[in-house]
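Standup notes
- DV: blocked on the single-chain target, sequence here:
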Amino acid sequence: MNIAVYAASSTRLDAAYYEAARAIGHELARRGIGLVNGAGNMGLMAATADACLQDGGTVTGVIPTFMVEQDWHHKGLTRLIETADMHERKHTMAMLSDACIAMPGGCGTLEELMEVITWKQLGIYLKPIVILNLRGYYDHLLQQLEHGIEEHFMGERHRDIWRVATTATEAVELAVSTPLWDPSVRKFAAI
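- DV (later): unblocked, structure below
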C-alpha cells in the first residue's frame, strides 16, 4: 500500500506542523506503507520523507523536471520520478497511491486537495481522501465545502468524499480504513 501525502515546502512553519509531518512519516514506515510525495527537499515534504526513511520506510517522490533543474528535489528518496509538468505530477501521485492525506499547506497543497476531491466527485479517483485539520487549519475550507453543499453546488452524498483527522495517527488510520468510493457516483456527478 502507498499513501500520497500533500505537504508544504515552506520552512517558516510552527513546530507543530513539523511534528505532525514526522509523525506521519514514522507511522507509514511502522505500518509498512509506502509514502508518495512531491519530492521536495524542504518543509513538511522533506520532514515526512526523512522520518519515513529514518524508520526504514520507502518514499517515492514525484517532481517536474524544471524543479529538479532548480535543485529543489530530495536526493535521498527510495525512488524519484520526474514528470514533464505539474499536471503529470499530480496525476502520477494519485495513480501511485491507494489513499491521500492533505496536510496543512499553501496554494499548491490546496490545489492538489481540491483537484482530487473533484476527481472523486466525478468518480475518477475512488480512493480515500483525508484532510489533516491540524490546529484548525482547514476549518474555513471545511466550512466553505459545507456551504457549497447547503447552496446545492454539491450534493449531500458529497460529504462522504473526504474524511477529517486532527492528528497524524488518525489521518493514517482513516486513509487505511476508509472504503473505496462507489463508482456508481458518476451518475450523480450532475447535481
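- Follow-up: The beta strands are 2-6, 34-37, 59-64, 79-83, 99-102, 129-132, 162-165.
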